[in-house]
Design goal:
By secondary structure, the chain is an alpha+beta fold. The chain is built from 7 helices and 6 strands, in the order E-H-E-H-H-E-H-H-E-E-H-E-H. The chain has helices spanning 19-32, 41-57, 66-77, 87-103, 109-120, 141-147, 161-172; strands spanning 14-16, 36-40, 82-86, 126-131, 134-139, 149-155. A hairpin with a 2-residue loop joins strand 4 (126-131) and strand 5 (134-139).
Amino acid sequence: MTEKTPQISRDKIKTVTDQRALVLWLAKEAKESSPQGDVPKGLIRLFDALIGEFAEWGAVYPPMSWAEWFAEVLRSMYDPNCERCSERVRWLISEYYGELVNRRARLEPDFFIKELVLQVLPRGAVDITRQNGQVKVSSSEMFDLEHGFKVRVIVREPKSRAAKITSRWLQEL
């Protein structure tokens, strides 16, 4: 007697529509994926900070002070304490910071998400398309069945940091 694998109906799978939830899941997958190695804890902290900033603001903004930023990045890169983590974290940090330095402007959400997807998921698992000025991320049927959820995210425009800084400044007056 042969056992049949239970088929999951694609209609009953949860759909992820929040870009923040997608990015946090991709970041977790990036840290847990292979190849695993000893990665400086400082680099992992930088990665977590980038993910946190993107999750809060919808983009990664250039630093207010490049000198302080470079000092922190260099200190983090040479942290002698290491932790088991995916080497992909090191690669993603290089991609993100390289782009941030080259552009001297914010990292846009479509670039940020695309880089995570390229490092974490097999080709064809999700499609990233631009239609009518909107970036859409949608998963394939293979992805849906393998991971147990669908991705249908419309990438939002980043929040303005200036609004929060101004309101905080006004509150301190």
